[in-house]
Fold this sequence. Notes:
Blueprint: H1 8-22, E1 27-31, E2 36-38, E3 43-49, E4 54-61, E5 67-69, E6 72-73, E7 78-83, E8 90-97, E9 110-117, E10 124-132, E11 137-144, E12 154-162, E13 169-176, E14 182-187, E15 195-204, E16 207-210, E17 214-217, E18 222-223, E19 228-234, E20 239-244, E21 251-258, E22 265-267, E23 276-279, E24 287-295, E25 308-311, E26 323-328, E27 331-336, H2 341-344, E28 350-356, E29 362-369, E30 374-378, E31 384-391, E32 394-395, E33 399-402, E34 406-408, E35 415-417, E36 420-424, E37 434-443, E38 452-456, E39 462-465, E40 474-482, E41 487-495, E42 507-513, E43 516-522, E44 533-540, E45 543-550, E46 556-559, E47 565-575, E48 578-579, E49 586-590, H3 596-615, H4 619-629, H5 643-649, H6 746-750, H7 782-786
Parallel strand pairs: 2-9, 10-18, 34-41
Antiparallel strand pairs: 1-3, 3-7, 4-5, 4-8, 6-7, 8-9, 10-11, 11-14, 12-13, 12-15, 15-16, 15-17, 19-20, 20-23, 21-22, 21-24, 24-25, 26-27, 27-30, 28-29, 28-31, 31-32, 31-33, 35-36, 36-39, 37-38, 37-40, 40-41, 42-43, 43-46, 44-45, 44-47, 47-48, 47-49
Amino acid sequence: MRTMKFPWxxxxxxxxxxxxxxxxxxxxxWSTAGNEVQITSTFRVxxxxxxxxxxxxYSASGHSAPRxxxxxxxxxxxxxxxVVNVTEDCTFSCxxxxxxxxxxxxxxxxxxxxxxxxxxxxxxNVSCVYHxxxxxxxVVCSWASGRNTFIxxxxxxxxxxxxxxxxxxxxxxxxxxxxxxxxxxxxxVDGSVQVISVRANVTNKLGSAETPEVxxxxxxxxxxxxxxxxxxxxxxRNCSIKIKQSVPTHHLDINYKEENKEQWTPHPKSVLTxxxxxxQSLQPYRxxxxxxxxxxxxxxxxxxxxxxxxxTQEEAPGCALDVWYAVDHNKIRVxxxxxxxxxxxxxxxxxxxxxYDRNYNIISTQTANSNxxxxxxxxxxxxxxxxSARNSRGRSPPGNITIHTVKAKATLVPxxxxxxxxxxxxxxxxxxxPLEYVVEWFAKYQKPxxxxxxxxxxxSSHVVITDMExxxxxxxxxxxxxxDNSVDRLEFTDINTDVSVPTSGPVVxxxxxxxxxxxxxxxxxxxxxxxxxYIIYLEKNNRFFASxxxxxxxxxxxxxxxxxxxxxxxxxxxxxxxxxxxxxxVNFFIQQDPPLALIITFSVLITLVGVLICVYQFSAxxxxxxxxxxxxxxxxxxxANSKWAKDCLKEKAKVNLHHQISISTxxxxxxxxxxxxxxxxxxxxxxxxxxxxxxxxxxxxxYPHITYIKCFSHDSDSSGQTxxxxxGTNETVDYISxxxxxxxxxxxxxxxxxxxPSHSFFPEQLDLGPKxxxxxxxxxxxxxxxx
Length: 787
């Protein structure tokens, strides 16, 4: 049978089509060390081109852009590049330019990725644990992988299993392992297995490493699961913890620690009773944390359980307060130090301060807030003061002090060395023996005093104070208490461990009294150290006038005999480092005193006016004044010659004024003016006033007959006219009233009160209704003054 040959041109066409669809490469690239190389190694990269062109080679590392490299020519179609001491992953590529092949598509360049790394280290610290649980058990082995290889590793655990004492091998297994830098592998074993041997192996393209074979007896590496701690119930000195275990164990370990402490304390004899453990020997009012672990009869301890925490209950404070005192503005300020948590044994609610007299009779009992560390009580000598701290469970033992009469002794001279202050004193050879010493110190310019103190034994002779802050002035004393209840006080003052220039001046408060100015000031609490002096500056009319240096112990200064002018005053502070800036400037003014003669004259005039007013209250004086006053009175116009009277005369009808008040009513629409005769009276003698009465019409009148003007409007059925009549000498005089009431009786008219009271010189202002226009009216006004 003849075999048909496949046409060669068909094969060529198929190859060209496949190359066109696939995408042809212009070159081929490779490395003498492969794709994964060891760090710091040296190798060569080759590029072989498939057509004639101008070859080029590039390299890049990290995220940098490719850079052209200077390559070497191996032959007509191949170039190469030597790579020396590679330290990281990098990429190489080749390109072909200027190809003579006439193709429609540009050929792709070629590239190579190089991964740099290390061969694996031998694994270390191989350990295996046989975890026992309620449902299943498994062996977990772990080891340290060593340094990072930066390339892919293949890690495996090779295991062989044996019966008792490794007398026979049951099988060999390989298990994958994962993790870095600690690698783990786990597997299960049959119940007949009692011994295992393990080897860890790690391999990558740069090498491989393996651990020696390690054997384990399973009963020695058994580990139960961690216990579960549940409810915690605490008293003041013990706590009961409920514990749950999925696998029964024979050993239990309980640890505890206080809040903010790192060291755990093991609790001895942790016995599980009815699912609970009682942890004893605890302290009251502490925040305790607990954890537990368990172990079978053999094997390993379990992992630690989760931590549970709770407060123990409170107890009454078990220690007395450290109490001290200081005299503050004729009062005693009692100080105490807060109890340490270990002594307070609970949350302090308040402090009870009790004052006793010398016979221990209670004078007063007061309470201070739990945040306070001092309290003011009334000043008393040879009295006793106790201070107790109280929590929810009770009071502490009382801290006692006795307010003594202190004998002042010589001043101590402390020694400042390396920011510490050393104070020494000599034990005096006296009849009573010293029982103890108390050293107190406080910031001199702080109010109230932040008092600190330290009790010393009877054999002490010096103390080193380390907590004095820099740039603060301190003072204090050493108290010596003797067995006969007497006390000595050795003072020290103006101590600063460091000093600076003050940052500002005092606040000045001035009070001007005539030509004297009383100056006080408020000093800074922290002037930068101990004050050497205060300086007062005074300006007069914007010119420097004077300055005064004042002792640092003073808070008051008096400026005397200042002349009238505008003044300005301010102050500054000086320490051992120099004078500080001026404080706020205050303006004041000294006024010119008024002349003494003017003051005397004004005082005399006021006195005379007062005397005259008092004298005028006598009636005899009033009459005498009127005698001299009537000669000075001006003429008063006569109503008979007035314009109003002349107009009334021209009326055709004579109007008769008939006085019938009891039967008439005031007209609201009609008002007529009536002309009557008015006779001028002679000036009467100075006689007492005689009242007029309607009951004695025949009595002799004190004055001649006067015809008065009286106007009425009557509503009458017979006549609406207005009448005038002249009253007889025996008739009652009626006064003009613009508001006369229609229903008023004659008796009421006759008993009208006088216009002006007799005891007042000036009449009250009256509303007389419509006004009259008079041309010439003369009115006798003597009655005004006589009444």
